[in-house]
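Entry 12.
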Amino acid sequence: MSMPEHVLVIGTGSIAKRHIANLKQHLGVQCVSCVSASGRSFDAVHVGADRVFGSLEEALQATPDFVVVASPAPWHVEHASVFSCAKVPTLIEKPLAASLADFQDNGALLVDNQDLVQVAYNLRSMAAARKMRTLLAENVIGRLLHIHIEVGQYLPDWRPQTDYRQNVSGQAKLGGGVLLELSHEIDYLLWLFGDFDTVYCIVANSGQLEIDVEDSANAVFSRADGLVASMRLDFLQRVCSRSCKIIGETGTLVWDLMANTIILGRGGADSLVCFSDPKVDRNQMYIDELKAFLDPTASVSENSTLEQAANVLAVIEAMRCSAAVGRAVSIQKVTL
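Predicted 3D structure (tokens):
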């Protein structure tokens, strides 16, 4: 495919640096520029960019072909609106916004230009995720009865070279907390299985991490056809865990995202390895999401649409509401 000449990345954090490196080293973009989310000055060498700008306005005047918004979540809508309104294709790093209200109050320009906007939920780009989708479409375990999704990792281990309390994940003002930071799991729940009607959720801050956001969430989703999904998200587990178990009428599928395997069990010793790639390069899913964004004909990935990303926020809103009132609440679907 033909790569654009100039891609702008907004933000200077770890995910911004990853995108800059991938655009330059793996996709061969001629010029990758960068602007700080806060407008602060910095050296191009710090992030690996070819060029830096002092403001969004200056960056817009340089007419980038594409933009990747990798700033903290509270600024996603504002930053993306500037460029999508100027008809520049815009990829927003998850989540779409810091809250559903933020998007609904400030996202009109994004809605008007939604054909130019994608949201990056990188787990969709995993080969295992695409295989799981195929297995479900083939109805390999019959009618689905229950889903259990879990992700947990000790937050101080995420980026041990930095103070986790100063990073996005641990600060409410930057859109931290497990519900937004680990919303990948909410996205693929909807992507693989469709919408749910209600949710009962408990969120908590254990006090163990000295952060001002929730460090765990436990939820149960249900819908009219009887399918129930349970979900555990946390920043607390010392041994990293990430998995999805799907119980069906005729068997069970277990997707282990850490081992990068999918196992089909039918009882006793009868099990089948449906997918296994333990030596996968985890960076490839980030490369593939960029390919899908930069080349509409690419089939390697499926980034989230604006409406799909808004519905992840709607689920998070319902989870927060349920936790506040102490009972199950309805999930209000967003239609754009």
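Annotation: The CA atoms of residues 74 and 98 lie 5 Å apart. The two ends are 31 Å apart (CA to CA).
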